[in-house]
Amino acid sequence: AQSVTQPDIHITVSEGASLELRCNYSYGATPYLFWYVQSPGQGLQLLLKYFSGDTLVQGIKGFEAEFKRSQSSFNLRKPSVHWSDAAEYFCAVGGTDKLIFGTGTRLQVFP
Amino acid sequence: DTAVSQTPKYLVTQMGNDKSIKCEQNLGHDTMYWYKQDSKKFLKIMFSYNNKELIINETVPNRFSPKSPDKAHLNLHINSLELGDSAVYFCASSRTSGSGYNEQFFGPGTRLTVL
Predict the structure, then answer these.
(1) Which of A2, B23, B72, B92 could share a disulfide with B104, CB 3.0–4.6 Å?
(2) B100 to chain A, closest Cα gap in Å
(3) pLDDT for res A110
(4) Is residue B85 helix, strand or coil?
(5) What angle do CA A17, A22, A25 make, to 5 degrees?
(6) CA quadruple A81, A87, A88, A93: dihedral positive or negative?
(7) Which residues in chain B touch residue A98, judged by CB atoms under 8 angstroms apart?
(8) Strand runs (DSSP E) across chain A, as ranges?
(9) Using one digit for the tens of pLDDT, what is the confidence trace for A5-28?
């Protein structure tokens, strides 16, 4: 079955600290992987995506993610978190049609 | 220059009513989607249309009826609204290509509250 697991429901970090949000997937074919961010009351914004090639992908707002096929993971990282990064983060996997989302990780940033 | 727009942004209604949510994209995409985000923030696809044809229908109650008058529009009509229909509904669109997956662009969402 196709699924995405985000084990951390809620993460709190201090501003300036590094961040890693975990994502594991189960998918029968070559996955296309995505991270989206949802700010309060807003829609979904694509942070980055992995289709093929280099397993370390760079995204917007200083985020990056690394695809590890052996671990079925696609973790999101940022070296230094800003207060404006506080939001809900969704990992998703897709084929040629629908996206399957994880349950999201809520990021809280303390000054 | 809104890429994917939805109306209304908020919708509050009584149980049993019928309501519609509209979605429009100006990206020239040929595939459009409806997703539902429940109170626990879980996002799940409901429907997708490609060139006005229904492609995906994910075991959604038949009270929900999508309508695509043209490639740029995908509306969602809901009959006999129930409390459990309260959610945020997101529209998305993408362009079909031969290279595999096609990036989906999301609208701002419509928050539906059924009283």
Answers:
(1) B92
(2) 6
(3) 94
(4) helix
(5) 165
(6) negative
(7) 33, 45, 48, 56, 58
(8) 3-5, 10-14, 19-21, 24-26, 32-38, 44-50, 56-58, 64-68, 73-78, 87-94, 99-101, 105-110
(9) 999 999 999 999 999 999 999 987
